[in-house]
């Protein structure tokens, strides 16, 4: 067992709620990390673009392509 895994095990064992919640005691941590990721995707921009602008642009492009292919086939 290496030093890294021993220190990781010590950190995980010191996390509160082990007897009552078991593995589920980490859920609040992952919830907060997920919320922070979502917040960063909404608010951080690189140049003039962020994740949601790119996603919306791609959705609009797919809609236009689908609509034009349906119009051309009819």
UniProtKB/TrEMBL annotation:
UniProt KW keywords: Membrane, Transmembrane, Transmembrane helix
Parts of the chain that traverse the membrane: 21-42
Keyword field contains Membrane: yes
Pfam families: UPF0640
InterPro entries: UQCC5 (IPR028183)
PANTHER family (alphabetical): SMALL INTEGRAL MEMBRANE PROTEIN 4 (PTHR35250), UBIQUINOL-CYTOCHROME-C REDUCTASE COMPLEX ASSEMBLY FACTOR 5 (PTHR35250:SF1)
UniProt protein name: Small integral membrane protein 4
Protein source organism: Drosophila lebanonensis (Fruit fly)
Lineage: Eukaryota, Metazoa, Ecdysozoa, Arthropoda, Hexapoda
